[in-house]
Amino acid sequence: MNAPLKHTADATTVEEGLAIQEEQAKFDSKAATEVAMRNTLLTPRFYTTDFDELDAIDVSGVREDWDQLIDQMVSDPNKGHFKKNEDWDYVDWDNMEPQLKKEFIDFLISSCTAEFSGCVLYKEMKRRGANKDITQLFQLMARDEARHAGFINDALREAGVAVNLGFLTQKKKYTYFRPKFIYYATYLSEKIGYARYITIFRHLEAHPEHRFHPIFKWFEEWCNDEFSHGEAFALLMKTDPKLTSGFNVYWIKFFLTAVYATMYVRDHQRPAFHEALGVDPDWYAHEVFTKTSKLSEQIFPITLDIDHPRWQPTLEKLQKANADLAEATEKGQFFAKIGAQARAALAFVSLITIPAKSHKVPASTRLEPVY
Ligand SMILES: [Fe+2]
Ligand SMILES: [Fe+2]
């Protein structure tokens, strides 16, 4: 007789979490996996990097904060949390408004792919490294991301779809990023992930009538995990002041602009989803950018001026260009496609040339999730 299958939420290592999901893969659907396989500017990617350079990091300069963070992650406050329990309300997928269903499934697949992208990168770092501090951190973060991805896959399975994570690991294209770009991109994605989840969580706390799916009830603990991951990357960057000064400040500005603009465009592709949540995507974007900027002051010497008169109208132009690009691509209109691409590129240049705001970075990066 087979032992009852353990849940990803209870897995204490990434290997265990992935083995459980491998076992479930026989139920996974082709269509969802195909969506997760897509590589465009807007879809979550898989990354690889120079693992030896990462392994050479010496955290002794931030030892006290480091040990505190690691101790907290080792204590594993969210073990067993990411699974369905009595708080999981019944979801009537069959009668969900079709546009909402489509956008929500798209949201879940894209979130699952993003979680899994972190998982794969962190697990690989843990596997390749020899530096105890670094491998321990990456093992802990991979553990969390495997649980997050597993939980989203639970939700998707109820809708009759699921992403085959084993297949993705082998077949999805990996994008190479130098370690410093991994720090900027991953740090930002962890912190913006925290800001996105906590903003939705607080909004639904105040307006529970808009909570059209139970998964949002889990967002608070979820975003606390992402917050810790972001703290870890802040500490990694703190070990080398060059990473956040000189010419690298331009790279930081580039990543801030790219991450914010991508979020804006992607969210505006899901109007029915935001309407069901009772959230205006423009308000939501501004709220998330404000929180992320405030948090990123812990390590980045600049923040974007999101209240600059050019910011919002240019984001709207970028979004419009993107919608036109998608339409032209679908209809096979070559010249309309080139035109839309040029408008998108121009809008991005206009965003990135808005002067940034500078400030003095605090001596210690440590922050608490207070939103
Ligand atoms: Fe995560
Ligand atoms: Fe994370």
From TrEMBL:
Pfam families attached to this UniProt entry: Rubrerythrin
Catalytic activity from the UniProt record: Mg-protoporphyrin IX 13-monomethyl ester + 3 NADPH + 3 O2 + 2 H(+) = 3,8-divinyl protochlorophyllide a + 3 NADP(+) + 5 H2O
Cofactors, names only: Fe cation
Recorded GO terms, molecular function? Answer: iron ion binding; magnesium-protoporphyrin IX monomethyl ester (oxidative) cyclase activity
Q: Does NADP show up as a keyword for this record?
A: yes
Task: List the EC numbers from the record.
Answer: 1.14.13.81
Annotated function = Catalyzes the formation of the isocyclic ring in chlorophyll biosynthesis. Mediates the cyclase reaction, which results in the formation of divinylprotochlorophyllide (Pchlide) characteristic of all chlorophylls from magnesium-protoporphyrin IX 13-monomethyl ester (MgPMME).
Put simply, this protein is called: Aerobic magnesium-protoporphyrin IX monomethyl ester [oxidative] cyclase
Species whose genome carries this gene: Roseobacter cerasinus
Q: Which gene encodes it?
A: acsF
